[in-house]
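A reminder from the course coordinator: this example appears on the midterm review sheet, so study it carefully.

Given structure:
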């Protein structure tokens, strides 16, 4: 088998600001001496808006690969951590207010298994499979690169917080996600190959500035849940939502890739998820969620919240993207050049 070339691993550059909060974070990372916004300023920000979401994304990214030319010591800078806590509180409060899943984790998981009949689903994968064009498929890949080039990195933060059956099952699934010991099968590398097939730049963070606020929020959710032990149940719920909904969505996306002639690597990424995540779905429901709740039954409401918050943010993203596409417009802040543009 041909080994896939590894994607660019250098830290990405800082993007332009999208408002006062993100501007203050960027200035601080560049060494400015000006004070950071206080809690009162953060509390007035739109919790789903581009400014707060970019500020959070930048602060979270310090725990991943950081940014080119930025000192790694900023990862634990007390002033930046205080600002992050204020922004997280604003985001989390809105999520708890707007999530309607309830407190029954089993019921929330069951609802994920109900697929719309035929092509009636109002998701991006339904749209792309039924009527997607090459330029829309490329935009989708650029948007999702913020997540898929991170792969399941934030999910690993929950492993030290689990035990027994839940921990063993979580690690088994993650072993698959990270290529089962083979670098050329790491799912992030497979997604980078998908991007190359679509004529996109697979560099980590390349499309951050092009991504609208709802796309940033879906990635920030993983970091928010992953970095806080108190949200371990919500992280497991988020992980369950991703794994349970992946097989049918991946089947549609594989069809979309074939339909626009995206290339074998693009098709392979989603074909792989149809098969792998069908197995993962059972393991995550019965062993990760089941094991966690057997150990800590009081976390059932948190698991349900994680499922609901994931669905809420995915619905927001789909709504904005599909509104643009149905009007014949780009869903990105700056449209892509190249094939299908």
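Designed residues:
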């Amino acid at each position: 088998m041909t080994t896939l070339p590894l994607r660019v691993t250098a830290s990405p550059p800082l993007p332009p600001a999208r408002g006062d909060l993100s501007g203050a974070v960027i200035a601080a990372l560049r060494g400015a001496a000006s004070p950071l916004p206080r809690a009162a300023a953060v509390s007035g920000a739109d919790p789903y808006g581009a400014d707060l979401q970019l500020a959070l994304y930048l602060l979270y990214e310090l725990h991943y690969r950081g940014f080119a030319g930025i000192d790694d010591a900023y990862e634990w800078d007390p002033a930046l951590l205080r600002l992050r806590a204020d922004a997280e509180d604003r985001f989390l409060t809105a999520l708890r207010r707007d999530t309607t899943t309830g407190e029954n984790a089993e019921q929330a998981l069951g609802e994920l298994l109900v697929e719309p009949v035929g092509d009636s689903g109002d998701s991006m994968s339904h749209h792309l499979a039924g009527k997607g064009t090459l330029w829309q498929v490329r935009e989708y890949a650029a948007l999702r690169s913020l997540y898929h080039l991170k792969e399941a990195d934030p999910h690993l933060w929950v492993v030290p917080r689990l035990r027994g059956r839940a921990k063993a099952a979580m690690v088994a699934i993650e072993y698959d996600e990270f290529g089962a010991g083979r670098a050329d099968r790491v799912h992030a590398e497979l997604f980078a190959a998908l991007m190359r097939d679509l004529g996109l730049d697979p560099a980590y963070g390349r499309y951050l500035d092009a991504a609208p606020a709802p796309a940033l929020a879906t990635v920030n959710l993983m970091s928010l849940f992953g970095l806080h032990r108190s949200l371990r149940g919500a992280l497991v719920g988020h992980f369950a939502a991703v794994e349970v909904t992946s097989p049918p969505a991946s089947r549609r996306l594989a069809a979309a890739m074939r339909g626009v002639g995206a290339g074998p690597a693009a098709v392979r990424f989603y074909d792989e998820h149809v098969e792998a995540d069908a197995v993962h779905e059972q393991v995550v429901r019965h062993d990760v969620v089941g094991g966690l709740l057997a150990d800590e039954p009081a976390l059932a409401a948190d698991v349900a919240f994680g499922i609901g918050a994931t669905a809420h943010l995915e619905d927001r993203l789909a709504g904005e993207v599909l509104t643009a596409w149905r009007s014949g417009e780009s869903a990105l802040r700056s449209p892509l050049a190249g094939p299908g543009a």
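Residues 1-9 have pLDDT under 50 and may be disordered. DSSP finds 13 helices and no strands in the chain.
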